[in-house]
Structure formats: structure tokens, C-alpha cells
Amino acid sequence: MIKLNLPIYSHRIKSNEKGADIYDIIRKKYVHLSPEEWVRQNFIQYLINEKGCPKGLMSVERALKVNNMPRRADIIVHDKNGQSLIIVECKAPDVSITQTTMDQAVAYHMSVGGKIICLTNGLCHIYAMIDNENKRFFYLKELPEYQSLIEQIDVVENKV
């Protein structure tokens, strides 16, 4: 698989007649190792190891409805109350991050909520903080640590 613009992580990979499978530590099973799955599994490791996201508060390929159509969010990180916090849309490394990708992630956000949208193809990462009150978002240079997001939420909730 291609080297990504993420730290290098070790993965459990096994070969089979159809190619290879990679172990997903969130779904606790082997899944087909496609280029998009490579990005997804590495970004999961990034969220856990670099940003402190608890793996017990993550869901992968979560089913949801967007305009009454079934969709699947690549990765959703939740807070301790089960509320969506970070929505991640993954693409294969050879797929560009476009406005269509952002529109897809925003539609997921409208379905499940959240504070941050991440778009990644493993080479390029885009982070946007959602300001629900003013119905806008702004881009971030990097993804905040999980604990700092939780602290921000606690401060806002305690103001009300």
C-alpha cells in the first residue's frame, strides 16, 4: 500500500484468494484491504494514538439516513454521552478531496451532528469546525486533541 501523510502504524494483515484483509480494531474483524480501507485504518490509528480518541467511543461504517437514503459514515468519534463529535470521510489516496466530498460530510453532519468534519485521502487532510449556532464552519490547521474538544464542550454546556 502507498505511504500516507500520517505516522506509520503496524497493522494485522492477512492474505487470501481475493487479495488481503486488514484487521479493524473498532469493528473487531478483518475487512477487505482496499485503498480507501488503508486510509481509514491508518486514520483510526492516528485518531487513537495522536489525538487521544478513545477507541470505545468510535464507530466505523456507521449506518445513517441522509434525505431518507441509507448512507455510511466512515468514522464517527463520539463524546462520553454518545453524541457525535468528529465525522471523518475517507477517500482512497488517488481520489481528490473536492467540494463533493465536503458536501457528503456536511450531509452526514446534518444527520448525526458533531463539532468537526475531517476529510482525508491519507495524503491531504482537511479539518473544519462547525459553528451550529451561526450556521457556518471554519477551517482548522490541524485536528484538535480529543480532550481539548471535550473541555470546549464542557465549557459551553456549563455556560447555559
What does this structure look like?
By secondary structure, the chain is α+β, with helices and mostly antiparallel strands. The chain has a domain at 53-159: tt1808, chain A (Alpha-Beta Complex), CATH 3.90.1570.30. It contains three helices and nine strands; from the N terminus they run βββαβββαβββα. The strands form two sheets. Strands 4-5-6-7-8-9 form a six-stranded mixed beta sheet, sandwiched between helices. A three-stranded antiparallel beta sheet has the order 1-2-3, covered by helices on one side. A hairpin with a 2-residue loop joins strand 1 and strand 2 (19-24).
Order of strands side by side in the largest beta sheet? Answer: 4-5-6-7-8-9
Q: How can the largest sheet be summarized?
A: 6 strands, mixed
Query: How many distinct helices?
Result: 3
Structural category: alpha+beta
What CATH architecture of the domain at 53-159 would you give? Alpha-Beta Complex
Helix content: 25-40%
CATH class of the domain at 53-159, anyone?
Answer: Alpha Beta
CATH topology (level 3) name of the domain at 53-159: tt1808, chain A
Give the distance, in angstroms, between the N- and C-terminal Cα atoms.
Answer: 48 Å
Summarize the structure.
With 160 residues, this protein is an alpha+beta fold. It is built from three helices and nine strands, in the order βββαβββαβββα. Strand 5 and strand 6 form a beta hairpin.
Secondary structure elements and pairings:
Elements: E1 13-16, E2 19-24, E3 29-32, H1 35-49, E4 58-66, E5 69-78, E6 84-90, H2 99-112, E7 116-120, E8 125-131, E9 136-140, H3 146-159
Parallel strand pairs: 6-7
Antiparallel strand pairs: 1-2, 2-3, 4-5, 5-6, 7-8, 8-9
